[in-house]
Structure formats: structure tokens, C-alpha cells
């Protein structure tokens, strides 16, 4: 199966159709079925004299589900009451969805080439690492970021291409947006540092949940909510999947990042689930953090890491 990023080009124009008292949700349902989409992920945005415009509410689709599906879609529209489809009707899109109109005899070749390119992209991106550091103290220059240097030293020595992806403040949507953008730039691994603690300012794990609700997390140390500045019950690291990119959220202190990196380097060469990976990364970090419900007293001064 070949997942395709739509890159915000999610509109479909069906030209050569007229509508008279048609049920618009029924129209959307017909097209959604033809594209193997959930019914609530496609809707009608415009109906004109000779066209209907639909919008897909997903960032990615499987190429197999839409390439060459023009005749299937038009046939379903012909069966919808209130819709008249001309003999020369056709489907257009400004993006990759334009492959809906691909001739049937070309579909097999398109899918074969897409699989080849997907494999090549995965091979290329698998050795590329981006490091994104979070925290207001880094953005305004109060603290010098040494985490990129640590990753470049340890993973660079193992043959990985490591790039510093900059810093971002403690903002949920800013972190999610930056990670999403980096994931689209061909990095097989994205390492975020900072923002995994139990205070209200710590947003990284929650930001990754916006991109991958099924992400795997592992607690490093527990807290009593409401004591000190803690609004969460634990420091947690995470591993998420965003497109082709595996995203690893580590704590901010560089000595903790250095503890996790050798484990990460070894794990990258061994197939495992994200749940297995995050638990392996957590083991050396737990060893240096105070454990137990009393830990909030120690962490108030920042010594427990975030």
C-alpha cells in the first residue's frame, strides 16, 4: 500500500454534471465510497451550473484507492437522484488527486512506480536525522542548546546525517506544526528535546499526540498532581509516527539525552514497535531520576529534568 501526502491539494472538481434538488450529503457519500473514504471525510463545497466541487478532509490517501477511479465515481453519481452526468464529464484536481482521471491501462504502471519511489524515499530518509529543541529559554538565548551537538556526535559517528532543525517555544501547536513540517522534508528520524516534564509549560508529548494519537509513551518518574508546579502525574518520553518519520521525544538536559542516544542508535538497527523502542529508551533515564511520589519536592528546582 502506498500512502500519498496530498500537500493541501484536497479539492476535486467534477465537471460536466448538473444538479437539481439533489441531496448533497448523498453526493458526498457516493464519492467517499468510491474512494474508500469514511463518510465524514469528504463533503461538497460548491455546486455550479456544470460542476460539483468536493473536499477531502484527510492529509493522506492510499494511491490504490484513488488512481484511475474516475469512471467508478461518475457511475456512482449517475445513480444519485437529482444528478445528471454528461458523456464528457471528467474529474480534475490541482494536486495528486488528479490521478483519479488516469486511464485504466496506466494505473498498474503508476502504482509500480509509486512503490519504487516510496522505497527509495524510505531508504534515503532512514539515514537522516533532524533535532528540534523546545523551550522558551532556548528561543530567547538564555540557555545554549547542546543537544544537537550530542546527537551529531553519537549518531553522526554511526553514519547518520544529522541536521539541527532549530528551536521552538513551549507552544502546543507550534511544536506540532514544526514537527509536521520537518516530517515532510525527508527525515526518517526526528528527535525533540525538552517539554516532556510534568509542569504546565511542558507541551511536547501533547503536541505529538495531535499528530499521532496512538503514540507510545513511557513514564520516567511519577509525581503527585498539585504539588509544586506539577499538573501531570509523570515525566514521560514518547515515540510517535508522523508520515515516514519516527519522532522521539526526549528530555531537555543534555546529560539525559546522552544517556538515551546509545540505546537509540542500537535500536535503529533492530526492527521493533514504537512501544518497545520507548520502553528501551526509558530504562537508562529512569536510573538517574528520583523515583516515587515524593519526587515533586526534588523536581521543583529543575533537577529532575524535563
Describe this structure in words.
By secondary structure, this protein is α/β, with parallel strands linked by helices. The protein folds into two domains: 3-117, Alpha-Beta Plaits (2-Layer Sandwich); 126-299, MoaB/Mog-like domain (Molybdenum Cofactor Biosythetic Enzyme, Chain A). 37% of the residues lie in helices and 26% in strands. It contains eleven helices and twelve strands. It has helices at residues 24-34, 63-66, 70-78, 104-125, 136-139, 147-156, 172-183, 204-211, 254-268, 274-286, 295-299, and strands at 3-5, 11-19, 42-47, 51-56, 60-62, 83-92, 128-134, 161-168, 189-193, 216-222, 234-242, 245-250. It is elongated, with a radius of gyration of 24 Å.
Strand content: 25-35%
The parts where pLDDT drops under 50 for at least 5 residues are 292-305
User: What is the rounded distance between the termini?
Assistant: 38 Å
Number of strands: 12
Shape: elongated
CATH fold group of the largest domain: Molybdenum Cofactor Biosythetic Enzyme, Chain A
Structural class: alpha/beta
Question: What is the helix content?
Answer: 25-40%
Spatial ordering of strands, largest sheet? 8-7-9-12-11-10
Q: Report the mean per-residue pLDDT as an integer.
A: 88
Amino acid at each position: 500500500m502506498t500512502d500519498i501526502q496530498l500537500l493541501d491539494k484536497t479539492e476535486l472538481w467534477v465537471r460536466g454534471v448538473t444538479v437539481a434538488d439533489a441531496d448533497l450529503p448523498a453526493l458526498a457519500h457516493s464519492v467517499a465510497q468510491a474512494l474508500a473514504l469514511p463518510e465524514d471525510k469528504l463533503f461538497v463545497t460548491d455546486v455550479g451550473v456544470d460542476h460539483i466541487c468536493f473536499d477531502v478532509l484527510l492529509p493522506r490517501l492510499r494511491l490504490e484507492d484513488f488512481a484511475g477511479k474516475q469512471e467508478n465515481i461518475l457511475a456512482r453519481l449517475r445513480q444519485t437522484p437529482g444528478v445528471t452526468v454528461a458523456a464528457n464529464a471528467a474529474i480534475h484536481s490541482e494536486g495528486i488527486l488528479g490521478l483519479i482521471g488516469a486511464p485504466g491501462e496506466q494505473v498498474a504502471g503508476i502504482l509500480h512506480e509509486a512503490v519504487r519511489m516510496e522505497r527509495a524515499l524510505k531508504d534515503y530518509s532512514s539515514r537522516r536525522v533532524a533535532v528540534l529543541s523546545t523551550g522558551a529559554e532556548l528561543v530567547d538565548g538564555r540557555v545554549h542548546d547542546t543537544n544537537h551537538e550530542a546527537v551529531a556526535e553519537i549518531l553522526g559517528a554511526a553514519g547518520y546525517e544529522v541536521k539541527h532543525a532549530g528551536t521552538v517555544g513551549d507552544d502546543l501547536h507550534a511544536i506540532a506544526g514544526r514537527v509536521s513540517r520537518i516530517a515532510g522534508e525527508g527525515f526518517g528520524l526526528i528527535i525533540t528535546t525538552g517539554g516532556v516534564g510534568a509542569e504546565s509549560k511542558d507541551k511536547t508529548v501533547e503536541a505529538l499526540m495531535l499528530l499521532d494519537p496512538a503514540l507510545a509513551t513511557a513514564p520516567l518518574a511519577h509525581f503527585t498532581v498539585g504539588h509544586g508546579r506539577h499538573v501531570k502525574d509523570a515525566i514521560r518520553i514518547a515515540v510517535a509516527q508522523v508520515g515516514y518519520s519516527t519522532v522521539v521525544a526526549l528530555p531537555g538536559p543534555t546529560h539525559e539525552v546522552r544517556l538515551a542516544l546509545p540505546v537509540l542508535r542500537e535500536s535503529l538497527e533492530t526492527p521493533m514497535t514504537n512501544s518497545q523502542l520507548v520502553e528501551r529508551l526509558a530504562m537508562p533515564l529512569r536510573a538517574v531520576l528520583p523515583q516515587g511520589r515524593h519526587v515533586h519536592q526534588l523536581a521543583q528546582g529543575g533537577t529532575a529534568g524535563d
